[in-house]
Amino acid sequence: VQLMQSGAEVKKPGASVKVSCKASGYTFTGYYIHWVRQAPGQGLEWMGRINPNSGGTNYAQKFQGRVTMTRDTSFNTAYMELSGLRSDDTVVYYCARSPIVLAGTWYFDYWGQGTLVTVSS
Amino acid sequence: QSVLTQPPSASGTPGQRVSISCSGSSSNIGTNTVNWYQQLPGTAPKLLIYSFYQRPSGVPDRFSGSKSGSSASLAISGLQSEDEADYYCAAWDDSLNVFVFGTGTQVTVL
């Protein structure tokens, strides 16, 4: 099982960024893909998840209206797009996999390597 | 500010047992399962414990998890130098409708 993320990005404030997460080694549509972010030296923050089978999403309220999670089952790839970038969006973004179960029993058994997004004018 | 509180640091000498607490509430740990993740410097988190005490294959049985009420704990027995890392608890919160991570604990092997 591997989750391979796209490379580092540098964006200007107000711009958007789209990070990809390519899955291999398992049935892509059989597991949720979650997005978790981490500011330098800080803790982990869950952003939301997508069901690659249905395309259904569930976003953390903090990111509602700014984040869009999509997938392309032809390429076994999930995407996370964040708009209206601010300086505090300068963090590492991770994708992670969980079984398709109730939220109360989620766990993330495989993670991508992380993508650093730097927001700077 | 996370709703799952962990001590910022813990330490021990090689071979000792170290325990890390994770304090939550009835809307998260009290109702839902808890996971523990290990994050080595500069790397992605790794799942250590899920559903309170289950270990994924490949995780040594030196790592164990438990729950009591609205709190959970991770114990590392036979501490080794490679256990130096940050450790996070995590659970779904029914009130906030968000998956929450703990504040994190940095483990140092003296």
Describe this structure in words.
The complex is a heterodimer of chains A (121) and B (110). By secondary structure, chain A is mainly beta. Chain A is built from no helices and eleven strands. In chain A, strands 2, 4, 5, 6, 9, 10 and 11 form a seven-stranded mixed beta sheet that branches. Chain A has a four-stranded antiparallel beta sheet with strand order 1-3-8-7, with no helix packed on it. The model of chain A has no long low-confidence stretch (mean pLDDT 97). Chain B is 0% helix and 45% strand. In chain B, strand 5 (63-68) and strand 6 (71-76) form a beta hairpin. Chain A binds chain B through residues 34, 36, 43-46, 60-62, 94, 96, 103-109, 111-114, and chain B through 2, 31-33, 35, 37, 44-47, 50-51, 56, 88, 90-92, 94, 96-104.
Largest sheet of chain B: 6 strands, mixed
Beta-strand content bin of chain A: over 45%
> For the report, how would you describe the main beta sheet of chain A?
7 strands, mixed
The helix-and-strand class of chain B reads mainly beta
Give the termini distance of chain A in whole angstroms: 37 Å
* Low-confidence blocks of residues of chain A: none
Question: Mean pLDDT across all residues of chain B, rounded?
Answer: 96
Q: What best-fitting shape of chain B do the alpha-carbon axes yield?
A: globular
What general form of chain A does the structure show? Answer: globular
Number of helices of chain A: 0
Task: Summarize this structure briefly.
By secondary structure, chain A is mainly beta.
Short descriptors:
heterodimer; A: 121 residues; mainly beta; 7-stranded mixed sheet; 4-stranded antiparallel sheet; 11 strands; 0% helix; globular; B: 110 residues; 6-stranded mixed sheet; 3-stranded antiparallel sheet
Topology overview:
The complex is a heterodimer of chains A (121) and B (110).
Chain A: E1 2-5, E2 9-11, E3 17-24, E4 31-38, E5 44-50, E6 57-59, E7 67-72, E8 77-82, E9 91-99, E10 110-111, E11 115-119
Parallel strand pairs in A: 2-11
Antiparallel strand pairs in A: 1-3, 3-8, 4-5, 4-9, 5-6, 7-8, 9-10, 9-11
Chain B: E1 9-12, E2 18-23, E3 35-39, E4 46-49, E5 63-68, E6 71-76, E7 85-93, E8 98-101, E9 105-109
Parallel strand pairs in B: 1-9
Antiparallel strand pairs in B: 2-6, 3-4, 3-7, 5-6, 7-8, 7-9
